[in-house]
Amino acid sequence: MSEARTTPAPSAASTCGKVPAGGIVELSESRAKIDAIDREIVRLFEERMRVSHDVACYKRATGKPVLDPVREAQKIAAATSLADDDFKQFIPPLFGLIMEMSRTYQHHSIDGPTSLSDFVAHISKGATLPESPKVACQGVAGAYSHIASKTLFSQAKIEFVSTWPEVCDLVEQEEVEFGVLPLENSTAGTVDRVYDLLSTRGLYIVKAVTLRIDHNLLAKPGCLLKDVREVFSHEQALRQCDEFISSLSSEVHATVCKNTALAAQAVAASERFDVAAISSKECAEIYGLDVLRESVQDERNNFTRFVCVSNRPFVSSDADRSSFLLVLPHEPGSLYRVLSRIAALGVNMVKLESRPIPGREFEFMFYVDVESVPGDAAFDQLAMQIPPLCDRCCYLGSYAEISR
Asked: I want to staple 277 with a disulfide (CB 3.0 to 4.6 A). Which of 29, 58, 267, 375 is the partner?
């Protein structure tokens, strides 16, 4: 009978690679060595950056561009060849970052502060927004944009227009102080047209609010749920209430309106008593309708984020978020370089949204939200270090965001 064999448990040394010839080194000794190496790395990095300044002066005198991609590729390849096989894979990203920092420093040496860093340096911080401004929003009374406007400014003088571009027109022409636009919905995603307007109109986000969207079925007094044969609402609201609409009689059909408030308005004006609207409770009060059924949306956690825009930047005392539009070089690693720089500065990124660039096939711009505002040391570094990595870097504003 053969003996049972057991496999010995791996030792601590076997799970951590090879044991040094002299045995395991004390942690404090290893840390002391790392501290000494780090001091030398910093000294050499500073020396390299000073030499980069000499390079910048030469390029400024001769009109040469800061970026020489052929030279950089050669440098990275040469540095990689110097490394042991165990570490070759780490050399390209390390030297890529060093060279990006060198370019940033050269740009700063040649051109001074970037236009963005110079711009944000002159923004007044701690601004107080007016309590009763003129505000433009799309739709009619009771629309969710109207509710967002009243949430942002309780005493606002509201001007209603038919389209989002008209909202921007009134702000640009200074006929109103602010405009309110829907930016994204938790179930339907981003409102692409509004993002396009932000990228082209030169307006600034100065405040934001996230509203819980609560859809209700409204009808004329006396109309019962069993009487409804047609439901009016915005296309998106109808999609968000698809299960509820399907649960009604098979004879019920949906009709698309420009927005939920116009749907309620149409029901109130109709001579029929078999029509209903999916809209807000505010619309029931405004247009004299009854609420036949509350909260008819399929997804209970349904939120829409609205932004308040101005033709000049305001940074309120409670602002804690900033937004940027970035157009990056169409080359490998361009987005990574920006994101790694944001991370290296210790800034929390809370949103990253891509949008196609019109006229440029399969190329994208990016909308980035970060938890940092002008006046923060990290933000000031962002404003200086990010633009050289971009074909275009557009500051969209700094603001506080509230929820209701």
From this structure: 267
